[in-house]
Amino acid sequence: MSEQSDCDKCMYYEYDEDYDCYICTVYMDEDEMARFMNLKSRKCPYFRLGDEYQIVRKQI
Asked: Would you tell me how many other CB atoms lie within 10 Å of the CB of residue 47?
């Protein structure tokens, strides 16, 4: 799996305690979701590499 399709590394992939699972938290309207579901590519256009230390660097 390429880095751009690895949800585990994406900053939008978060644990939802209500559903007891991980979900994608990218906000998409109905049209965007339809386009996303019909993509032939396995690369997610919304992928952003999650950086756990981003907040710490801003504080320094």
From this structure: 19
Structure token digits, residue 44: 């997610």
Q: What is the pTM of this model?
A: 0.64
pLDDT tens string 1-50: 444 458 888 889 999 999 999 999 999 999 998 988 888 877 888 888 87
DSSP letter string, 5-57: G-GGGBTTEEEETTTTEEEE-----HHHHHHHHT-SSSS-TT--B--TTHHHH
What lies within 8 Å, CB to CB, of 43 at 6+ separation is: 2, 4, 5
